[in-house]
Amino acid sequence: MQQLTTARIEAGSLLSGLSLKGPRSARRGLGATALGSARPWSYLFRAVYQVSISHAGDFSYVGIDAILEQMRRKAMKQGFELNIMVVGQSGLGKSTLMNTLFKSKVSRKSAQPNPEEKIPQTIEIKSISHDIEEKGVRMKLAVIDTPGFGDQINNENCWQPIMKFINDQYEAYLQEEINIDRKKRIPDSRVHCCIYFIPPTGHCLRPLDVEFMRRLSKVVNIVPVIAKADTLTLEERDDFKQTIREELRANGIDVYPQKEFDEDAEDRLINDKIREMIPFAVVGSDQEYQVNGKKILGRKTKWGTIEVENIAHCEFAYLRDLLIRTHMQNIKDITGSIHYEMYRVRRLNESNAGPGLAPGQAPTLVSAHTNGQTKVNGGPPNGMAAQCEVLTHEM
């Protein structure tokens, strides 16, 4: 189910934390930089002229650094896409947290209010799209909800519909990619990040949590969070986080940011600090209050106000920075270059193996390697393999 709404965020923190100061922010932060709207050509020529004048006395200056401004202009013109999936049982505040992240009504329940909504008998996948703009930066945001997950008496294999949905988006992108007359810019519906909500039990992960993250971490970037963390004391919260980290390691679950994808020592240093905080203990709220003359998002109780963006109260700010301000482009890069690439290679190999294979179905024909070439026993390749021959002849 797709619904397109438009939301404009006049204030807030969306995409506003990065700047183009060097190659690293060009690689990681360009996709999440808000530096103003596109400038008219007259202003652009004047800016280039001013740069030339400023370096007029520098005989060695070539102007290679101007590529950053060119990339920024192109990115501002095209806009950005981000697809976030939220998974967790009912009542954990998934919709509220998404509204809090983007300071707008972006969740499914906000866009499609239904006070009589009942827990579905089976898992449903519902996606809502929004056009968001902040300081001239446009982004198409898709929030994918999974009502029904973990709400049944028997939750066996309840992860399968979610796995199928993620793979279906990879398949749709692949089919667009291999078309002979393909689009200049392929619409990206691939799931870039999955936020998994862990109930605040204070004890340990449930078998359902372990099984879901173990299977889905191989196909999508998973960011686990402890929902409604204000129900735990600080000591309970720290113990619970430590227990979860130990269980993740014991079960071989590699959540985002994955250690094997750190690009260099600087990346590793930053990501190690993030890995020490995972899972993030978060509190969501779209209610505004005045505290000491300052407007805040929070939850008001008899004994005080829980400030959502105050790191002394919860770790929502760290989650927001990870998803939006510092690692958004990296999350998308890993989706495209790692998760989608693994799916693409597997599908093209299956297609070359023989006709009639459904997405995700294992090949049944036997292949033999001779002199660096692959020979397949069986009939001719199907239509997909024929289209992909150029892409796969070296695989």
UniProtKB/TrEMBL annotation:
It comes from Gadus morhua (Atlantic cod). It is found in: Cytoplasm, Cytoskeleton. Residues 78-350 form the Septin-type G domain. The gene is septin9b. PANTHER family: SEPTIN. One of its GO terms (biological process) is cell division. This is Septin 9b. The keyword Nucleotide-binding applies. Its main location: cytoplasm.
